[in-house]
Design brief:
The complex is a heterodimer of chains A (115) and B (113).
Chain A lengths: L4 E3 L2 E4 L5 E6 L6 E8 L3 E9 L2 E5 L6 E5 L5 E5 L8 E8 L10 E2 L3 E5 L1
Parallel strand pairs in A: 2-11
Antiparallel strand pairs in A: 1-3, 3-8, 4-5, 4-9, 5-6, 7-8, 9-10, 9-11
Chain B lengths: L2 E3 L4 E5 L4 E3 L2 E3 L5 E8 L6 E7 L7 E2 L2 E6 L4 E6 L8 E9 L4 E3 L3 E6 L1
Parallel strand pairs in B: 2-12
Antiparallel strand pairs in B: 1-4, 3-9, 5-6, 5-10, 7-8, 8-9, 10-11, 10-12
The chains are: A mainly beta (115), B mainly beta (113).
C-alpha cells in the first residue's frame, strides 16, 4: 500500500459525459501527478500540482482539467468524454517538487470505461 | 496482493558500460504484463519495454533487454552501451489484465561521462 488513495476504482460512463476522479496523496506529500495509462500507448503524464498550484503540464487534453485543494487532495475532471478516453488514470505523490529526483508513490488507479 | 520490489534505489555507471536494474514481483496469477518505464527529469513517463508473462522469449528493444524469469518472479532490465540520455528514474511495473498497474519505487540511474 503506497498510501495514495484514488476513488472510484472503476467508472463506466457514456460518451459526452463528464466525470471527476479523486486522489488523496500520502500524508505530508505536497506534489500530485496525474497519469493516463493505456495498454497500447503506455503511460502518459498529464499534469502536476505542487501545494495547490499547477507546476507542470504534459499531454493533457483541453477537455481535461485538474486542481489541488488546500487539504492537498486533487481532482481530475474529464469532460465531453470520448471512447478513446477509456484508460486507467492514476495519480502519484511525492514529498516535494520533484525534478526527477524523488520517488513518486503511485495510487492504485481509476479504470474508466467510456461506452 | 501483488507487489513489485526494486532493491536498488540508486545506481551510477560510466557511459558505454552495461547496467542491469533489478525487479522482483509477487503474484499468484499466471497471466500478467510487466513493464519498465523511464522517467527523465522532464517527468514524462516513457515506456521502455513490455513483457507478456505468457511469452517465454525475453523482450528486446534496441539497447534495452529484459531477463524474465517467471518461476523466480524476476524481471531485470539490461541497458547496453549506456548513454548520457539514459540518466533517469526507472520504474518496474506489473499489471494484471484489466486491472490496476502496480509500480515499484524506482531506481535512479546516473550515467557518468
Amino acid at each position: 500500500d503506497s498510501g495514495v488513495t484514488q476513488t472510484p476504482k472503476h467508472l463506466i460512463t457514456a460518451t459526452g459525459q463528464r466525470v471527476t476522479l479523486r486522489c488523496s496523496p500520502r500524508s505530508g506529500d505536497l506534489s500530485v501527478y496525474w497519469y493516463q495509462q493505456s495498454l497500447d500507448q503506455g503511460l502518459q503524464f498529464l499534469i502536476q500540482y505542487y501545494n495547490g498550484e499547477e507546476r507542470a503540464k504534459g499531454n493533457i487534453l483541453e477537455r481535461f482539467s485538474a486542481q489541488q485543494f488546500p487539504d492537498l487532495h486533487s481532482e481530475l475532471n474529464l469532460s465531453s468524454l470520448e471512447l478513446g478516453d477509456s484508460a486507467l488514470y492514476f495519480c502519484a505523490s511525492s514529498p516535494q517538487l520533484a525534478g526527477g529526483e524523488e520517488t513518486q508513490y503511485f495510487g492504485p488507479g481509476t479504470r474508466l470505461l467510456v461506452l | 496482493a501483488q507487489t513489485v520490489t526494486q532493491s536498488q534505489p540508486e545506481m551510477s555507471v560510466q557511459e558505454a558500460e552495461t547496467v542491469t536494474l533489478s525487479c522482483t514481483y509477487d503474484t499468484s496469477e499466471n497471466n500478467y504484463y510487466l513493464f519498465w518505464y523511464k522517467q527523465p527529469p522532464s517527468r514524462q513517463m516513457i515506456l521502455v519495454i513490455r513483457q507478456e508473462a505468457y511469452k517465454q522469449q525475453n523482450a528486446t528493444e534496441n539497447r534495452f533487454s529484459v531477463n524474465f524469469q517467471k518461476a523466480a518472479k524476476s524481471f531485470s532490465l539490461k541497458i547496453s552501451d549506456s548513454q548520457l540520455g539514459d540518466t533517469a528514474m526507472y520504474f518496474c511495473a506489473f499489471m494484471l489484465r484489466d486491472d490496476k498497474i502496480i509500480f515499484g519505487k524506482g531506481t535512479r540511474l546516473h550515467i557518468l561521462p
